[in-house]
Amino acid sequence: RILNPILTKQFLKSSIRKRKTDREDAVVIGKLLAQNEGTLTTVNDIRNPARVHGRALNKLTSLRTSCMMYLRTVEKRLGNVPVACTDVLIALEKAHDAMFEELAKETPTEERKLLESIPGIGPKLSTSILSEIGDITRFHSGDSLIAYAGLDPKIRQSGATLLSVGRMTKRGSPHLRRAFFLAANIARMHDSELKAFYQKKRAEGKRHTAATCAVARKLTVRIFSVLKRKSEY
Q1: For the residues 162-177, what does the mean pLDDT come to?
Q2: What average pLDDT does this structure show over 202-217?
Q3: pTM of the predicted structure, to 2 decimals
Q4: Are 73 and 39 in contact (CB under 8 A)?
């Protein structure tokens, strides 16, 4: 079973003494397993090539972005970029393209075509999304996929107090959340329904990021439906 580390951490925080030792960790894990917490998995699931390559590609993307931001700072301060720094960026670009090709081979072509039928999702985003989602049958609804990406809002309610909906929980895959956000940002410009929804949120006083995240939640439901029904959008 795979246990969410956030769950074990919160379990330890709830203890009176707040001790953090190997023994306490083992007790917590044992109690959670006794309650059937966690997701059943196998060694093959953990070593899934698509998931491994997807995580490597995400790390490489983050490294490339950091390198590009650093080069922009250097250019502003020095007026030019050293050749050695440019060579590093070119090497990262080549490694990124090679890793993407490997990932594309590991993701099912049929599922990629299904996702690419949705406005806002292209070949790269479809590959990244599938590598993070894995088997869609793990999710029982679009809301569970939204929660997996950390796009669900924080909800606070106690007794007679008013229900308040806050910011996103961000308790999920940051790479999947980023992919959904990028897809939503494109979809709200080309899909009439999502464009109207985005403009409605903006008219309500929402900022661009908050309105786009709202679009991303709608887009996530579409993604779930398309993969679950195995039919194009």
Answers
A1: 78
A2: 93
A3: 0.76
A4: no
Give the Cα separation of 47 and 57 in Å (integer): 15
pLDDT tens for each residue of 27-51: 888 988 888 887 777 776 666 677 7
- pLDDT of 118: 94
Query: SS3 sequence, the chain?
Result: CECCHHHHHHHHHCCCCCCCCHHHHHHHHHHHHHCCCCECCCHHHHCCHHHHHHHHHHHHHHHHHHHHHHHHHHHHHHCCCCHHHHHHHHHHHHHHHHHHHHHHHHCCHHHHHHHHCCCCCCHHHHHHHHHHHCCHHHCCCHHHHHHHHCCCEEEECCCCCCCEEEEECCCCCHHHHHHHHHHHHHHHHHCHHHHHHHHHHHHCCCCHHHHHHHHHHHHHHHHHHHHHHCCCC
Q: Which amino acid is at 144?
A: S
Per-residue confidence (pLDDT) for residue 141, from 0 to 100: 92
Q: How far is CA 64 from CA 84, 85, 89, 95, 160, in A?
A: 15, 12, 7, 10, 50
Query: Tens digits of per-residue pLDDT, 96-122?
Result: 888 888 888 888 889 999 999 999 999
Residue 146 CA to residue 207 CA, distance in Å, equals 20
